[in-house]
Design goal:
The structure holds 2 protein chains of 2 kinds. By secondary structure, chain A is of the alpha/beta class. Chain A is built from 11 helices and 8 strands. By secondary structure, chain B is an alpha/beta fold. In chain B, helix 3 runs parallel beside helix 5 and helix 7 crosses helix 9.
Chain lengths: 337, 426
């Protein structure tokens, strides 16, 4: 099939999976999917992280023909997937600590490399992913992540970004956006919620490491997420995937709105989807129907203080300005032609 | 082959003979020469296949070792002092997961005040973490203990620290017998992991465990260390058969047989103490020496057996539990529970303070006369301590402690003279 298919059918937003060649269809639509994160885990209903992880890891499993090992940071994903004496993981999986998943991944990759050398191979047939939440990635695990990047260790690191420390009860992380309420950034005082001018953009920091591959993805666009994981698994060296995963519990959103919120985050420009290789941005996911940031904010109780009896249109405007800046910076609008 | 070399280089060669698969390196004195030596061997192609990772911190070093070990590799790292503390969370994790990592600790003091010289505060702070801790008396023993450590770690599937005195051993040049590869290969079989991350047989490692089984998991760590009490002497005996020299074991007794006074110590100070004991023996004193070579597991029975017929025990230790006294002493006392022996704790050599034969001889004379304080700090400069305490009593803004003490030791600089005057007028 030569035509580049668009998955959004106007009005419905359904994934046109059936229109694709069988080998391009989503991993999840296949009976042969691995179910690496299988049913029975304890994630909340509508958990974006559980959804993102299932798609990402299954895509990685397919890309590596099941030759995959995962290192996992402490956090919701770890806790809900492995309550003793059960595990939802159907691949070899190691949880060590909160802040060291990237380094543990480096260690696994090093062991596999030596094993391959002993067998006379250049690369191991087995691949490594390391994964964690935004807190485990952008805060406490940041040094290990940066170390893994700069050494160009053969690991795909996947960050599931729900914009806060959810497992410990929704505290602020350096990925928490301005204006958002968390248990440690309450909607009090002149700057309710998280203050402006703080936080860091780890995908761009990853790009600055000039590693072979960096991408952002979203549970709104699962086919794109799978494609990015699949591409990442064809590359050796350090790779980074930052997945936007709404958290109904922490964001105060309806469980049924997880995908919708992720889509609004992309379509408002709040969360840009892009790819970068060796320090250069190589592709962006265009916005098809641009929406105001307010549409995205209003569905979440963590922003309720912006719209209540003491509305803060000034803060909404600043958030809109952030989205506008992303749209310009990443050139997110469909070309006028 | 016997040759003249630095302790660190000898340890690097010994580790290399153990065919490690993954080595993680992060510099900190006095350990650095060991990983430098290993790095040179990997880069030079004499240690291959082996992955040598220059990591960004000790926390990462231990984390990389954890990942490597869980993926079936023989993993090694080395550290000291601040570096050991920086990796603490991962240290507990490695033992909790039962991963047989071997790590050299080039013993060094912990700051503040920052101090690069030798004492045992670093590894003693980790005595409860679940790792086995072996102490080397000499560089030859450090070489030999590393070979034993890999075998011990892998037989138990538990991590092992080999503790050797920073600078005193790591930087000392002496004659060391480096075994042959064939000898090491015959003693140390290839690593056969108990648990391994393998796509052919997927397992989840490191799952959350609640009250229903956590105690049992921790107890198993203790059960393994208890098993090590038998394993360590067995491995030492096997080592002696293969390599033709004695090293390791739980304890080493020196002239203890009819001893009324026995000094207990760990590490390189045992050498100094041997000479002191010889000198006192020559004067007719019934004195002996007990070297603790396995600090974890702590050989309660062997220590009790060695000490029970003495009249008094002097524990000489390079560690200090602030607010209590001795660290090793508390364990020795536990070994002696129910026995009526006079016990003395001597804290010595903190931060590299030299432990001289003269001071030891003086201290032991007091011990034998039972005039020694129960808790003694060898060669403590009471003058400057008292001056600082007086200063703190006299003025609120007494200033930084360490700087004040250094001024008192070294004489005052003009700047501090003025500062003091201001204090007086204020
Ligand atoms: C060293 C350390 N500090 C703090 C914690 C407590 N802790 C466990 S999970 C977690 C939050 C995880 O947040 P994130 O990484 O964003 O993952 P999420 O739960 O949101 O998916 C925290 C703070 C810990 N386990 N270890
Ligand atoms: S708190 Fe959020 S991230 Fe955690 S399981 Fe629930 S929905 Fe998922
Ligand atoms: Mg989070």
């Amino acid at each position: 099939m030569s035509q580049d298919l668009k998955f959004y059918q106007t009005g419905t937003f359904t994934v046109g999976n059936r229109l694709l060649d069988p080998d391009q269809r989503t991993v999840q639509s296949s009976l042969a999917r691995d179910n690496s994160l299988t049913s029975g885990h304890r994630a909340c209903q509508g958990c974006g992280e559980a959804l993102g992880a299932r798609y990402a890891v299954d895509a990685a499993m397919r890309a590596t023909k099941g030759q995959l090992i995962a290192a996992n940071a402490t956090g919701c994903l770890e806790v809900f997937s492995t309550p003793y004496p059960e595990t939802s993981w159907k691949l070899p999986w190691l949880h060590s600590l909160f802040g060291n998943a990237a380094a543990v991944g480096s260690g696994i990759a090093a062991a596999l490399k030596v094993k391959a050398q002993k067998a006379g191979l250049e690369h191991s047939a087995t691949h490594v992913i390391a994964q964690g939440g935004d807190g485990g990635t952008t805060d406490i695990g940041f040094a290990c992540l940066s170390g893994m990047f700069e050494r160009n260790d053969d690991v795909l690191y996947i960050c599931y970004d729900n914009e806060g420390y959810m497992n410990t009860g929704v505290q602020r992380s350096s990925a928490t956006p301005p204006g958002a309420r968390t248990a440690t950034t309450l909607p009090l005082g002149p700057q309710p919620g998280e203050e402006f001018g703080k936080g860091k953009n780890v995908p761009l920091i990853a790009v600055a490491h000039e590693i072979p591959y960096v991408a952002t993805a979203s549970v709104a666009d699962l086919h794109d997420l799978e494609a990015k994981v699949t591409k990442a698994m064809t590359i050796h060296g350090a790779r980074y995937l930052h997945v936007f995963v709404p958290c109904p519990l922490g964001w105060g959103s309806a469980s049924s709105d997880t995908i919708k919120l992720a889509r609004l985050a992309h379509e408002s420009g709040i969360f840009p989807l892009f790819e970068a290789e060796h320090g250069e941005i190589t592709s962006v996911r265009k916005i098809r129907h641009r929406v105001p940031v307010e549409d995205y904010l209003r569905l979440q109780k963590r922003y309720a203080h912006l719209f209540g009896s003491h509305p803060r249109p000034d803060i909404v405007a600043r958030l809109q300005a952030m989205a506008d800046k992303n749209i310009k910076r990443f050139n997110l609008l469909e070309d006028a032609a | 082959m016997i040759s003249q070399m630095e302790g660190s280089q000898a340890v690097a060669q010994s580790v290399a003979l153990c065919r490690p698969d993954v080595i993680c390196a992060y510099p900190i004195s006095p350990q650095t020469h060991i990983v430098e030596g290993l790095g040179a061997m990997v880069k030079g192609g004499t240690l291959t296949p082996c992955e040598f990772l220059n990591v960004e911190s000790e926390f990462a070093a231990m984390s990389v070792a954890i990942g490597a070990s869980a993926a079936g590799a023989r993993a090694y790292t080395a550290t000291a002092s601040q570096g050991l503390l920086y990796m603490v969370e991962a240290i507990y994790n490695a033992s909790g997961l039962g991963l047989p990592i071997v790590m050299t600790v080039a013993n060094r003091a912990i700051g503040a005040p920052i101090n690069i010289w030798n004492d045992h505060s670093d590894s003693m702070s980790q005595r409860d973490c679940g790792w086995l801790q072996l102490f080397a008396e000499s560089n030859q023993e450090a070489v030999d203990l590393h070979i034993q450590a890999f075998r011990l770690a892998e037989e138990l599937s538990m991590p092992v620290m080999v503790c050797m005195d920073g600078f005193i051993l790591t930087h000392a040049y002496e004659q060391i017998d480096i075994p042959t590869q064939a000898q090491v290969d015959s003693f140390l079989p290839p690593y056969e992991p108990r648990q391994v991350l393998d796509p052919a047989e997927p397992v989840s490692i490191g799952a959350m465990v609640g009250p229903e089984a956590f105690m049992e998991v921790r107890y198993i760590a203790h059960a393994k260390q208890t098993m090590a009490l038998d394993l360590i002497p067995g491995i030492a005996a096997d080592f002696a058969r293969t390599f033709g020299r004695e090293a390791g074991g739980l304890v080493r007794r020196y002239r203890c047989d009819d001893a009324e006074t026995i000094v207990v110590a760990l590490g390189s100070v045992v050498g100094t103490l041997e000479e002191t004991v010889d000198a006192l023996r020559a004067k007719g004193e019934k004195i002996g020496l007990l070297s603790i070579r396995s600090y974890r597991p702590f050989p309660l029975a062997a220590v009790r057996a060695a000490l029970k017929d003495a009249k008094r025990v002097v524990v000489l230790e390079k560690s200090f539990s602030v607010g209590l006294g001795g660290v090793v002493s508390a364990d020795v006392r536990m070994a002696l529970s129910g026995l009526h022996l006079r016990g003395y704790t001597v804290v010595a050599g903190l931060g590299g303070r030299p432990i001289t034969q003269a001071a030891l001889t003086r201290m032991l004379a007091e011990a034998v006369a039972d005039t020694l304080e129960p808790l003694t700090f060898l060669d403590l400069n009471h003058d400057i301590v008292n001056r600082q305490l007086a200063r703190e009593a006299a003025t609120r803004r007494s200033g930084p402690i360490a700087e004040n003490l250094l001024r008192d030791v070294g004489g005052k600089s003009p700047r501090t003279e003025t500062a003091d005057k201001t204090e007086v007028t204020a």
